[in-house]
Design brief:
It is found in: Mitochondrion outer membrane. It is a multi-pass membrane protein. GO terms for molecular function: ATP binding; tRNA threonylcarbamoyladenosine dehydratase; ubiquitin-like modifier activating enzyme activity. It comes from Aspergillus taichungensis. By secondary structure, the chain is of the alpha/beta class. The protein folds into 2 domains: about 75-305 and about 335-355, 3-Layer(aba) Sandwich (Rossmann fold), CATH 3.40.50; about 370-510, no CATH class. Helix content is about 45%, strand content about 10%. The strands form 2 sheets. It has a 7-stranded mixed sheet, with helices on both faces. The chain has a two-stranded antiparallel sheet with strand order 8-9. Helix 6 (about 125-140) packs parallel to helix 12 and helix 9 crosses helix 10. The chain is extended, with a radius of gyration of 34 Å.
């Protein structure tokens, strides 16, 4: 073997190959050495360009979440006071004095239940930040905050406590830092993480920050998430594990604070977030038992809405790439800054009263207008039965209108604002068909073949009048030979046409 190696090592080709390898290694070494030298010189030059720390060039260490500090003197004093207060160095009499108004409202026992409760808020944006602010100001003292996002400039139109100095910092730490200056004794457990089903067990785990209260399960969870997937996973987990939870539906595209209410999730309205949440939870076996905050306000012409992405955006490639995270919306939702606050305070109000055992008596249905809606629907049903009987010549048994109480409420409150389209009077409202239908008043013959006696009508077929006006309209238009143009001023006819267009827009959107 050694002789074979010696024989081949002495060949001309082998010598050339060895020379090439050595030359290449030398060149590579020289290049790498030169690059290393250049890097060292560049780093040296960069360091030399940094000015020395002085009064003119001040420097501070990064914050605990890796950003430049934005601590004013007031922030520093607030943080120091909060550390002392959370360690017990804060007079309880001062706390009770600050909570005096809540104390006299809830009573000592109720306030103590709130102060000892462990509350989790998932989602710390416009809705969640106002909920947290209200809870801590009212006495909640153990709060876990969960949110993956940072404060942005666009957050400032609706965030409860964020300032310009907080832009770029995690929302959970922004809330903690600001609220510690108001309620320094509150202990915050900040989780700068994205909630989903895979981490639910960890993020909703018992309290672990206080040796005196370790292992305490959540007394309440507030769902302030605006992403449908994460929202459903949170609500489903809480329902499965019997954790009290209340959920905020969509505050985007809403403008009427008087329409915000609380009810069981089964009674929510048809805004897209409510509808999608109900449908997905029902598929998981959850159809009731979760209180939700929602708005009964519906979209319509002239109101803000979430528009579809333009063809230009689709042509750029994968639409999902426009989202901050996978499965998150890729569009900016129109939000009036006041409505998220209303939703947040409504959430907090429910939790405060529930934990303190204060009586809660919500009345869903247009603030007690259920009886009005039922009465109007019954009168309308009777009108169609009477008109159908006059047409067919005998009693029409089982005739039904394809309308619900919610439809009646929408027509009265949202479209006609509880006022007659003729005179604008709000008294004794009634719904009445605007014109005689071309096919008559009898039931649909196609449905009759299936054994159903339905009148084929749509919401746009009806207008709001007073009962007296409706009776005259029935006599002159529905049973008489006059047209609406002959009976009413042009302004009334135009107003009805505008309302009908609004209804068509709503039905198309729904």
């Amino acid at each position: 073997m050694s002789s074979w190696i010696q024989r081949h090592a002495n060949t001309h080709q082998s010598q050339l190959a060895a020379t090439a390898v050595l030359s290449g290694a030398a060149v590579a070494g020289a290049i790498l050495g030169y690059q290393t030298y250049r890097r060292k010189e560049a780093v040296k030059g960069l360091k030399a360009s940094i000015p020395d720390i002085s009064e003119r060039h001040h420097a501070e260490p990064l914050t605990e979440y890796g950003t430049a500090p934005a601590m004013s003197k007031e922030d520093e004093r607030g943080a120091a006071l909060a550390r002392r207060a959370q360690e017990g160095d804060y007079d309880d009499d001062l706390i009770l004095e600050q909570l005096a108004r809540n104390r006299v409202f809830l009573g000592d026992e109720g306030l103590e239940k709130l102060r000892s409760a462990f509350i989790i808020v998932v989602g710390c944006g416009g809705v969640g930040s106002h909920a947290v602010a209200s809870l801590t100001r009212s006495g909640a003292a153990k709060v876990r905050l969960i949110d993956f996002d940072q404060v942005t400039l666009s957050s400032l139109n609706r965030h409860a406590v964020a300032t310009l100095a907080d832009v770029g910092t995690p929302k959970v730490h922004c809330i903690r830092r600001r609220l510690e200056q108001i309620t320094p004794w509150v202990r915050f457990d900040c989780r700068n993480e994205l909630f989903n089903g895979s981490v639910a067990e960890d993020l909703l785990a018992p309290w672990s920050m206080d040796d005196n209260d370790k292992g305490r399960k959540p007394d309440y969870v507030l769902d302030c998430i605006d992403n449908i997937g994460s929202k459903v996973e949170l609500l489903h987990y809480c329902h499965q594990h019997s954790i009290p939870v209340i959920s905020s539906m969509g505050a985007g595209c809403k403008s009427d604070p008087t329409r915000v209410t609380v009810a069981d999730i089964s009674a929510g309205t048809d805004d897209r977030l409510s509808r999608s949440t109900r449908r997905r939870l029902k598929a998981l076996g959850v159809s009731t038992g979760i209180p939700v905050v929602f708005s009964t306000e519906r979209s319509g012409p002239g109101k803000a809405s979430l528009l579809p992405l333009s063809a230009d955006e689709f042509s750029k490639g994968e639409v999902g790439e426009l989202s901050v995270l996978p499965d998150f919306r890729a569009r900016i939702l129109p939000v009036l800054g006041t409505l998220p606050a209303v939703f947040g305070y409504t959430l907090a109000n429910h939790v405060i009263c529930d934990l303190a055992n204060y009586p809660i008596d919500y009345n869903l249905g247009g603030k007690g207008r259920d009886k009005v809606y039922d009465s109007v629907l019954g009168t309308l049903q009777g009108l169609h039965e009477r008109l159908a009987r006059l047409q067919v010549g005998h009693q029409v048994v089982g005739l039904r209108l394809p309308l619900t109480r919610d439809d009646v409420g929408y027509l009265l409150d949202e479209i006609y604002h509880g006022k007659s389209v003729v005179t604008g009077l709000p008294s004794k409202p009634a719904l009445v068909p605007w014109q005689r239908p071309a096919r008559g008043w009898g039931p649909d013959p196609e449905w009759e073949k299936e054994g159903q006696k339905f009148v084929p009508v749509q919401l746009k077929d009806f207008v709001c009048m007073t009962k007296e006006e409706a009776a005259r309209h029935e006599k002159n238009v529905l049973l008489g030979d006059k047209t609406v143009e002959e009976i009413y001023d042009r302004s009334v006819v135009d107003k009805v046409n505008e309302r009908r267009k609004e209804l068509e827009a709503y039905e198309k959107d729904a």
